[in-house]
Amino acid sequence: MTRIASWLMVIVAAVLAVLGGKAISAQDKYTVQVPNGLSFSEFRGYEDWQAVAVSQTDEAIAVILANPVMIDAYRAGVPGNGQHFPDGSKIAKIHWSPKKSADAPAATTVPGTLHDVDFIERDSKKFPDTGGWGYAQFNYDATSDTFTPDGTGTDCGYACHTIVTAKDYIFTAYPKR
């Protein structure tokens, strides 16, 4: 082998080792869970769920997504019909920091950096003390591309959601389409 070919093989091997190590060390978000057991893996595929609504504050833009069980309940009139969402209903709320669009002709605000992902799951047996709902917030760190649980457990959203007890603890209505 020529001297150049040997050096080229060493360089290629080093690059592959670095890239392979980075891929191996990347976080699998589906291994993260909050205290009391609500895990990211229980919401696998949430990225493909149907949008229920969007919301915006000065601090965040959010999209609220629901799994098919919850979408079917919304379409049946829950919670306005006095019924509860069935066990298996799930919501994902994705928050981004707002930023001005660099491409839109008007001063349009669009999602910027991912901030956190919140999950809500209806399981009346697993969460009897919180209206049948479990809550989780997973904060996102853009620098490390990782998620960490907020640390308060599956009832982290319960205190806030008690103000909508009459709506089965859910703030977001399913608007007309």
Provide the fold topology.
Layout: H1 3-25, E1 50-56, E2 61-66, H2 68-75, E3 90-100, E4 109-122, E5 133-141, E6 146-149, H3 158-161
Antiparallel strand pairs: 1-2, 2-3, 3-4, 4-5, 5-6
Report on the structure:
This protein has 177 residues and is α+β, with helices and mostly antiparallel strands. It has one domain: Cytochrome P460 (Chalcone isomerase, 3-Layer(bba) Sandwich). The chain contains three helices and six strands; from the N terminus they run H-E-E-H-E-E-E-E-H. Strands 1-2-3-4-5-6 form a six-stranded antiparallel beta sheet. The longest helix is centred in the first third of the chain and has 23 residues, at 3-25. The radius of gyration is 21 Å and the shape is globular. The protein starts with a helix and ends in a 16-residue tail after the last helix. The model has no long low-confidence stretch (mean pLDDT 87). It comes from Bradyrhizobium canariense. This is Cytochrome P460. It holds the Pfam family Cytochrome_P460. Residues 44-172 form the Cytochrome P460 domain.
Numbering strands along the chain, what is their spatial order in the largest sheet? Answer: 1-2-3-4-5-6
Order of helices and strands: HEEHEEEEH
Oligomer: single chain
Task: State mean pLDDT (0 to 100 scale).
Answer: 87
Helical content stands at 10-25%
